[in-house]
Each structure stands twice: as structure tokens, then as C-alpha cells.
Write a structure and sequence with these properties.
With 299 residues, the protein is of the alpha+beta class. It folds into two domains: 260 residues, 4-Layer Sandwich (Phosphatase 2c, domain 1); 34 residues, no CATH class. The protein has six helices and 17 strands. Strands 1, 2, 3, 4, 5, 10 and 11 form a seven-stranded antiparallel sheet that branches. A six-stranded mixed sheet has the order 7-6-12-13-16-17. A hairpin with a 2-residue loop joins strand 4 and strand 5. Helix 1 packs antiparallel against helix 2 and helix 5 packs across helix 6. The longest helix has 19 residues. It is globular and about 50 Å long. Belongs to the PP2C family. Its cofactor is Mg(2+); Mn(2+). Keywords: Hydrolase, Magnesium, Manganese, Metal-binding, Protein phosphatase. It comes from Raphanus sativus (Radish). This is protein-serine/threonine phosphatase.
């Protein structure tokens, strides 16, 4: 299993912050697991997290990458990972990504990609790589140095001069038109268009079930890769917005400042190519925010 996910609710400077991420490893699981463990901690402890969140995200991505490379030994030098993350703070949804895991929102019924897949054949990415002294060539698909099929990633020590961990960042306003967010690794997007994924989630109100349905359908469509999918649903309610963490204390927390008349829910569903189901996470803490890790051993 080289895919990992993280969903957290944390208090930072008097505000409750939601953090969601999908991390797709290559060359082994170590890099993705490291990013899962450290990226959000590095972010929320950044001194400018609440005052300049986008800058803090960029710093946290690059710092995590630097620390990952320092921690590696000669056996892990080819390991790397993508990251697609979403931060909910106040009435802001801030999405950042490195690599080809993707974030898509449904706003007003329309599917909108809020991240860009980082591929070596994109003109700006290819130019950046070549300006740094690297090259892009076809080897089954377009690859950096004939090796790596993504142009940005954590880790990948041997290609680090060309394969950077600088995230692209996009901000969306959380309002009544924002319906849900899908974060998923490329195993899903290889067989789903953005519009198809949004249409399927629309059909199922429960985010856990919608995530499971996406993964199940991706398997039926022949996806050969591991699949990790996180669905975060924004539900219009008549009361202030609450979130509930899935930690053992199961505390209900008021968003400060409130995000309006919205309720948040999330769920994850995973296809893993392993017999190990130890990745199963605790069940939902409340109906307002479901955070469940489900291991599907298909494929």
C-alpha cells in the first residue's frame, strides 16, 4: 500500500481548522507515510498559519520535503509522494497540491477542478525542468529523466533538482453554493472525469457511501492503481456550523469564526493491494462529521 490519507480537526489560535489530505507514494510507501505524519503538523505550527495561510502552506510543503530528504537513507532515495490537501479555516477553503492527486469541488452543481495535475509534458513544467538541466522523454508515458511520470513530488532525491515540492495553491469561498469536495489519488482520476465523479457523489447524500461508491466503480472500470478518495460534504443547515473530531474524546467543536449555515462531513474509502487491513480508522464521532477509513482489499 503506497496511498495514505489524513483527516484532522485542530484548534489553532482560537480557530477550529479542518485539514484533509491524500498522499500517493511511488518507489515504496515511506515518503507518503512521512508526508502524512508530518505535513499538517508542520503547517499548523507555522508562525504565520492564521495570518498568511497560503505562505505557510508553501513553507510547510517545502520544509516537509527537506526534512524527508534528510531522514532518508540510501535504500529510500527513490521514494516519493504526491499530496493533495484542503484546509478549512473560517469561510475559506484552501487547496494545495503537488503531483497528480486531484481536488475537485461541486459548486452550484458544476464540477470544478481546484488543482492541476503536475505532468512532465505540460509546457510550463517541461520548460522549468529543462531550465534546471533536466529532460523529459517518452517511456510508456512522458517522464522526467525517463523515470518519473509526475513533475512535482515530495522526495525523489535523485531527481530533486527537477522534481520540486512547490505547491500550487487555490482558495475558494465557503458559501451556500459550495456543495462538496473530492480529494483522490490518480487511481480514481485515471478512469473518472471530474464531471462523472461529481455526478456520482451527488446521487449519494452520505459522504462515506459516496466515497465507497466512487472506489467501487473505479475498480469495475479497471483501475489498476491503488485508490484513495476523501469526500467532504458541505450541508446547508438552519444552525451554526459545527464539526466533530474523530479523536477518542469525540468533542463537538464550534467553528470560530463560524463558516455560516453549513455542516461538514467527510469520509474515506481505500482500495489497497495488500492483505493488511490495519489502516482501518475509528468510526464516526457524530453524524455531523464522519471520518472513517475503509480498507477495500479488491485488486
Amino acid at each position: 500500500m503506497e496511498d495514505f490519507f489524513e483527516t484532522r480537526i485542530d484548534g489553532v489560535d482560537g480557530q477550529i481548522v479542518g485539514l484533509f489530505g491524500v498522499f500517493d507514494g511511488h518507489g515504496g510507501a515511506r515518503a507518503a507515510e512521512y508526508v502524512k505524519r508530518h505535513l499538517f503538523t508542520n503547517l499548523i505550527t507555522h508562525p504565520n498559519f492564521t495570518s498568511d495561510t497560503k505562505s505557510a502552506i508553501s513553507d510547510a510543503y517545502n520544509h516537509t520535503d527537506s526534512e524527508l530528504l534528510k531522514s532518508e537513507n540510501s535504500h529510500n532515495r527513490d521514494a516519493g509522494s504526491t499530496a493533495s490537501t484542503a484546509i478549512l479555516i473560517g469561510d475559506r477553503l484552501i487547496v494545495a497540491n503537488v503531483g497528480d492527486s486531484r481536488a475537485v469541488i461541486s459548486r452550484g452543481g458544476n464540477a470544478i477542478a481546484v488543482s492541476r495535475d503536475h505532468k512532465p509534458d505540460q509546457s510550463d513544467e517541461r520548460e522549468r525542468i529543462e531550465n534546471a538541466g533536466g529532460f523529459v522523454m517518452w517511456a510508456g508515458t512522458w517522464r522526467v529523466g525517463g523515470i518519473l511520470a509526475v513533475s512535482r513530488a515530495f522526495g525523489d532525491r535523485l531527481l530533486k533538482q527537477y522534481v520540486v515540492a512547490d505547491p500550487e495553491i487555490r482558495e475558494e469561498k465557503i458559501d451556500e453554493s459550495l456543495e462538496f469536495l473530492i480529494l483522490a489519488s490518480d487511481g480514481l482520476w485515471d478512469v473518472f472525469s471530474n464531471e462523472e465523479a461529481v455526478a456520482m457523489v451527488k446521487e449519494v447524500e452520505d459522504p462515506e457511501e459516496s466515497a465507497k461508491k466512487l472506489v467501487g466503480e473505479a475498480i469495475k472500470r479497471g483501475s489498476a492503481d491503488n485508490i484513495t478518495c476523501v469526500v467532504v460534504r458541505f450541508l446547508e443547515t438552519a444552525s451554526s456550523s459545527h464539526v466533530s473530531s474523530s479523536s477518542s474524546d469525540e468533542a463537538n467543536l464550534m467553528m470560530m469564526p463560524p463558516v455560516g449555515d453549513l455542516k461538514l462531513s467527510s469520509s474515506e474509502s481505500k482500495q489497497v493491494q495488500t492483505e493488511n487491513v490495519a489502516s482501518r480508522e475509528p468510526g464516526p464521532a457524530s453524524s455531523e462529521m464522519n471520518v472513517n477509513g475503509l480498507a477495500d482489499e479488491s485488486g
